[in-house]
Design brief:
Layout: E1 2-6, E2 15-19, E3 29-39, H1 41-48, E4 67-75, E5 87-91, E6 103-107, E7 111-113, H2 121-141, E8 149-152, H3 163-169, E9 174-179, H4 184-189, E10 196-199, E11 212-217, H5 221-227, E12 231-239, H6 253-258, E13 262-265, H7 268-274, H8 279-291, E14 299-303, H9 307-315, E15 322-326
Parallel strand pairs: 8-9, 8-11, 9-10, 11-12, 12-13, 14-15
Antiparallel strand pairs: 1-2, 3-4, 3-6, 3-15, 4-5, 5-7
């Protein structure tokens, strides 16, 4: 099979196109002929070596990538409920590897059938996994209730873009986004179901005193600090990433205590394997959200051989929407 390998930790140039033996599924696994592989910021962090000492994450040489779309190629022993050639989306089992290849092996529990849904495979891989994660994050970590309000930072980012549709599906009364100033034009044109999107540099003034029950923060840094000023009484701040790259940022615990706030981290790679019961209902919700047009994200398609370009675009924040690779 064709695959991209990380030859060593480092800059995007360590991503190399290579030929590897076709893998075969083991018991409980599904082999997938990949048509599209999503590129995520977590792929960049792992390739840079930020998590090189974290148990369970890959060491070079490895094939990066957590999310793919394609068709079922082969079924491992004991696998039921899937047919050869069936259209599917699959997630990595949590080890953060395998997606940038023409064949992907997934645990049966991490495979979602898209058969019978008129969803383009590029959109499927760009939106369904993140919508699934957003559903788990909002229901289990954020405890969103019908009628509550939600603020989403980095509103057009790959993961953030999944939250407004899922929040609407769960009955949120108001959903607002924030973006950098240079992304305001794109925000004005987005089809994502935000009530409004504001310039993050103008917080909190841009919101005219509005407070939110749940704030979704994949950005970190100063945006995270300002979020405490935007929480309603007993509000929940949901930490889902750190796109700012500020790894030394902290939050004042006394402000959390005094404000009766809750600050919760949500890392899907760590959460889903330990809470497998959340996967199936979240997958159903994600499929419905995407099919209903609630996750119409921008998608840029590149060839598998251009994986280094994709990573560079994510590093310098020049990507417009989700980047998807095609083997």
């Amino acid at each position: 099979m064709q695959a991209i390998q990380v030859t060593r930790f480092g800059e995007p140039g360590v991503l190399a196109l290579t030929e590897l033996p076709d893998p075969a599924p083991g018991p409980g696994q599904v082999a997938i002929d990949v048509t599209h592989a999503a590129v995520g910021l977590i792929d960049v962090y792992i390739r840079q070596g930020l998590y090189k000492d974290r148990e369970g994450l890959p060491q070079p040489p490895y094939v990066p990538g957590l999310e793919v779309a394609g068709t079922v190629r082969a079924l491992g022993e004991g696998v039921t409920g899937f047919a050869l050639g069936e259209k599917v989306v699959a997630l990595s089992s949590g080890d953060g590897q395998g997606g940038y290849a023409s064949v992907f092996i997934a645990d049966q529990a991490s495979v979602v059938s898209t058969e019978g849904h008129s969803i383009d495979p590029a959109l499927a891989v760009a939106a369904i996994p993140n919508a699934l994660m957003a559903h788990v994050a909002l229901t289990r970590a954020g405890r969103l209730s019908e009628g509550e309000s939600v603020l989403v930072h980095g509103a057009l980012g790959a993961l953030s873009a999944a939250f407004p549709g899922i929040a609407r599906q769960l009955g949120a009364a108001r959903v607002v986004g924030t973006v950098r100033a240079e992304r305001m034009a794109a925000a004005a044109a987005t089809k994502l179901p935000y009530d409004t999107v504001v310039d993050s540099a103008r917080l909190p003034d841009a919101l005219d005193g509005e407070k939110f029950d749940v704030i979704v923060d994949p950005v970190g840094g100063l945006v995270r600090t300002r979020s405490l000023d935007l929480l309603a009484p007993s509000g929940r701040l949901l930490l889902v990433g750190n796109a700012s790259g500020d790894w030394n940022h902290g939050i004042d615990g006394n402000r959390i205590w005094y404000g009766n706030f809750t600050v919760t981290g949500f890392n899907s790679g760590g959460y889903l394997p330990t809470h497998p019961e959340t996967f199936a209902p979240a997958a159903r919700a994600a499929l419905k959200a995407v099919a209903d047009g609630l996750a119409d994200v921008e998608i840029e398609t590149l060839a598998l051989a251009d994986a280094a370009t994709a990573h560079q675009r994510l590093e310098d924040h020049s990507a417009n929407g989700r980047i998807v690779l095609t083997p």
